[in-house]
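In keeping with the milestone schedule agreed at the kick-off meeting, the structural modelling team has produced records for the first pair of proteins. Each record is given below as a sequence line and a structure-token line. The laboratory manager (R.T.) confirmed that both were archived under the project's standard naming scheme.
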Amino acid sequence: MSKVEKEFTAVAWEPSEEWKAIQLTPEQKAELRAIMQKKIERARADGVYERLMELQGKVQWDLDLEELRRDRD
């Protein structure tokens, strides 16, 4: 059997007008970044990140089906 080499052709992607129409403007992006930064600062002030570090390793994120069934009984 001979080796078959695949040829990859780069395809230039042109965004459609519909795609362009739903993109955020730079001003909208800046405004959303500012809002997100305020939320981050509020969470930091409330101690959310410290609490997350306390829980890290103590929380069981996945349970098997048998454990879930036992909890229902």
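The second protein of the pair:
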Amino acid sequence: MRELLELAVPPYEGTGDWPAVLRDARVRRRRAPLAVALVAVAAAAVLAIALTGAPPSTLDRALAAAGDGRILHVVFDVDPAKTLVDLQTGASRELRSRHEVWFDPEGGLRDRETFAGVVQSDVSIPAAAVPGHAREIYGSLGAGYRDALRSGKAKVLRTGDLNGTPVAWIRIAPAHDVAVSRETYRPIYMRVGDGGTPILTYETIESAPLRADPVSTPNVFAESGTPISLARATAMLGRRPLWTGHADSVERVGDSVRITDGDTEITQARAPADLLPGAAGYTPPDGSVLLDGMAGLMRAGDLVVAIHAPDPVAVAGELR
């Protein structure tokens, strides 16, 4: 048995057609799923060697690691990224929204989006209403993926490296490729057409929480406001509002105050507040601003401040 396991572990390179050139990505693994995946792959390898006398192929290993549940569960980060900037040093790093998807061909689809752990949206779609494109993509990653591996329709395009992780690229449907780790043989990246994304979690399971309580967040930049005085704004916030020193208008928008100075809008509320679409309920660390296009979000004492301006960082430095 030991000899069979030692023979099974080294990756089988194989041959194939190598037309795909794909960008780098990184996978995050949890220790328990990794151990389970390695045991499954090793067991399949031992069985294949025992039956055929030959080491298992990349496709055999991928099939063994795919699981046999009817429900697909995947987690992935999406573009475009928001940028967190340190106002003192100028150092920046990217933050992305994360999608967690459960797809049951018969039960429907649930898609939950979070940003920095805060839920931004949570949507359940009945099976009959799942859009065709989503059904095609998630279907081909679930049962369709196993069918392609088992039937021989899947093809190994090439082997390579993604940010230090050895991978094999497999075409599972026209213009739909996945990269599988050559350690666990689970998918860690998917590419459809010209777009692609890292897969942080991949598993197939028998049951899932497909029903969600709807979540919606406001967009204060798009809401109309009611004119108020600076004195009233001060009373609302419990302190003098932050501004550039000039105000064309002062408005109340829900529980927040919006001050307009030319093409600059400064919306502020007591923390916590939902002021930036896609980052509702998130507050950046002190001394930093979260940028999303022409919008920025920052903490200022006990206030959360959203800035809409051609240069949010410059405005953040001018607030008084």
